[in-house]
Amino acid sequence: MGSVKTLETEVCILGGGPAGMVLANLLHEENVSCVVVEKLDPESIKAEGRAGIIEWTTVEALQQHGLAEQMLSDHRTQGQCEFRTPEWTFMLDYASLNGGKVHTVYPQTDLVYDLSNVFEQRNGQALYRIEGQSIEQSNEGVTLNCVQADGEQLTIHASFLVGCDGGRGLSKRAIPKEAVRVYHQAHNIHWIAILAQAKPYFPYTIYAMHPDGMAAFLMRNDSVCRYYLQIDGDDDLENWNEDRIWATLEQRFFMGNKNLHRGNIFKINKMSLRSLVTDPMRYQRIFLAGDAAHLIPPTGAKGMNLAIHDVLVLAELLIDHHHGKIDSGDLDLYSKKRLPLIWKAQNFSLQLMNMIHKHPSDFDQELWMSKMKQLQTSPAFATDFSIDYVGIL
Ligand code: PHB
Q: I need a labelling partner for 112 at 20 to 30 A (CA). Which of 16, 43, 121, 386 fits?
């Protein structure tokens, strides 16, 4: 039997996505030893289709730590979005309502790639193509048992483990059910999500409320577009070939005889929208961050931003703990600080989700259309919405 390789570190970070890589960079900057364990390699992470809207508070925080340089040399900003129905279209100039705050348009996967590069340049330790298998806790520490791509076993001993490994990851499964409360809601709203190699047709985000269901356009960059189409829960991807997708998008965007800039659809998946919050986001030496701790409907693009804000708070606490400024009990502040803002974001995303979708009940349809109309008629609501849209404070 081959010997098991072991590593000692203060913080073991499971998952090398946005939360994991920001946390790793922040801890490393303050000389808190950490190791990132990720099951994919950086190139495969870059090829995944994820969100692409970064809030100004996130950009500011990344900038402070020298983590935004690549993004800021290569991004777009956006301060307007458009809502369309068969009867009217409405442009929300949210930046002018919220004091000039804009969205930064930059694919999440590119950001993760940049963060990994910076971490590597700063001699941080990230291990790729490694699968976590089990997590054990004791009074002395926490142990992650994993297997490398070559089949060799690796054991990491740490003082703390931070689970940044997503909604289906190992870390949340390592927490006993009775130790936390999990609030969960499925919304009975289903999407086809596509990524297309195509020039954007529209200069900003479009939400279209067609009687057949919602369609949305999101910019990724000059050559990649994200589109969403609401479909029935029992509908299947097999029923949607490329021609049908493009034709349906054009119809739902009320484009008449005009065509979108059609292009190769290189990623397509079906999504069912849901919300989940874990409270607290800690169990002894294990902390959960990002999707491992909470899931949010994509409407409003809050998911990655929440994940990064989770670890901004957690990093500060872990650094203070490392320097002996606070004790282990004080690390509970992580959940106490984050949960109110996570619920606020849930509220925003759920409201936007309901405002733009087709509902099975006429009552809900009219109810949410009334909210949508308030965006046009109530300056107070439009201002509140515009503030929360670009960053939950
Ligand atoms: C996205 O970037 O995928 C996104 C952005 C805003 C939304 C929904 C999705 O409202």
A: 386
For residue 295, the CA-to-ligand 1 centroid distance in Å is 14
In the reported structure, the alpha carbon of residue 49 is separated from the centroid of ligand 1 by a whole-number distance in angstroms of: 12
Closest CA to 287 of 34, 1, 104, 87: 34
Strands 286-288 and 282-283: antiparallel
Hey, whose CA ends up nearest to atom 3 of ligand 1? 51
Exposed, middle or buried, 335 (CB in 10 Å: 0-12/13-18/19+)? buried
Cα 51 to ligand 1 centroid, rounded to whole Å: 6
Tens-digit pLDDT string for the chain (393 aa): 456 899 999 999 999 999 999 999 999 999 999 999 999 988 887 777 678 899 999 999 999 999 999 999 988 999 999 999 999 999 999 999 999 999 999 999 999 999 999 999 999 999 999 999 999 999 999 999 999 999 999 999 999 999 999 999 999 999 999 999 999 999 999 999 999 999 999 999 999 999 999 999 999 889 999 999 999 999 999 999 999 999 999 999 999 999 999 999 999 999 999 999 999 999 999 999 999 999 999 999 999 999 999 999 999 999 999 999 999 999 999 999 999 999 999 999 999 999 999 999 999 999 999 999 999 999 999 999 999 999 988
Q: What is the atom index within ligand 1 of the atom nearest the CA of 299?
A: 10
Q: Which CATH number fits domain 5-54+108-183+277-351: 3.90.960.10, 3.90.76.10, 3.50.50.60, 3.40.640.10?
A: 3.50.50.60
Ligand 1: list residues with CB < 6 Å.
Answer: 51-53, 218, 226, 298-301
